[in-house]
Amino acid sequence: MTRSTGMLPGGYWDCAGVLHREFELAMLTGHDEEFLVQRRGAPSAVLLTSVLSRTVRRIGNVCPVTEEVARELLVADRQYLLLKLRQLNFGERVHADVFCPWPGCSSRISLAFNLSEVPVQEAKSRGVWFTLTLSPEGCPSTESAQREVTFRLPNGADQELVCAQASNEADALNRLLERTLRGVGPHSATGRELVEALSPLSRGEVEAEMERLAPKVDLSMETACSECGRGFVVAFDLQRCFFGALRIDAELLYRQVHSLAYHYHWSEASILELTRDKRHLYSELVSDELGRDHGH
């Protein structure tokens, strides 16, 4: 299977206000892998935008899926597409080693799970902009209309900017709110001015409402240490897992290109157009043939 289809847990709103959720995803080719390997120093959010624009063939009627479209996707939709891309290119099963976080232990623990078991939650409500009436404790006003805040959910463009500019977690949250809030009550102030005017309680209320409304890909899992027996929660880093596998395969990619070019006399461009599964298949056939020639 070189392509996969499915439904986004959130969805992409086009400029006409139409929601698109069905997607078609293609396997990485050698060209895609080489492109991503060459950009290995870029922030993971930027790499994710690049890989989605190269492998998502369509979202609903939106085709092609440009980097601009990929940036406008909700954070959870981007995670879900990467999850499906990981399945399509590297298989269902994931093996990872973690260390017990409990003091005095730090034992290495091997984990294994199927990506299809990762919980995915669809959006509670679908829309581009949402409203929330802040509590009078956080926003002192007797009229609810004066306490109504308008916001959107974070997307890939927010991820890229926050990753590039934020100095710490608190700064990242402030920058995220600066980009996603559109005003409180009749005031249309945006950016830092608006965020600084909000009380800590109001900020917490907005964050909680964003969390409630947004689709989710739950990448945390409970496990227990086999040595000390104590339980803990592991946060699975999907982007690190995906791009890490590509870094590991970088040398293999060029070895396979060399082998196929040498034995089949194909051009480098033709070999890099192959999907991963076909390139691996032809490489295995070459290895088997060489093994027979040498009596193995």
Count of domain modules: 2
Q: Which percent band covers the strand fraction?
A: 15-25%
Helix content: 40-55%
For the termini, the CA-CA separation is 31 Å
Number of strands: 12
Pick out the low-confidence regions.
Answer: none
**Shape verdict:** globular
With strands numbered from the N-terminus, the spatial order across the biggest sheet is 1-2-3
Average of the residue pLDDT scores: 88
Structural class: alpha+beta
By DSSP (H or I, 4+ residues per run), the number of helices equals 11
The helix-strand sequence is EEHHEHHEEEEEHHEHHEEEHHH
What summary fits the major beta sheet? 3 strands, antiparallel
Rg from Cα: 23 Å
Protein model, in words:
It is globular and about 85 Å long. A hairpin with a 6-residue loop joins strand 11 and strand 12 (231-235). The protein starts with a strand and ends with a helix. Strands 1-2-3 form a three-stranded antiparallel β-sheet. It has two domains: 1-92 and 237-296, no CATH class; 130-214, no CATH class. With 296 residues, the protein is an alpha+beta fold. It is built from eleven helices and twelve strands. The protein is 46% helix and 21% strand. The protein has helices spanning 30-38, 44-55, 67-72, 75-90, 156-165, 169-180, 191-197, 200-213, 238-264, 268-272, 276-293; strands at 3-13, 19-26, 56-59, 93-99, 108-114, 120-121, 130-133, 148-151, 181-184, 216-217, 220-224, 231-235.
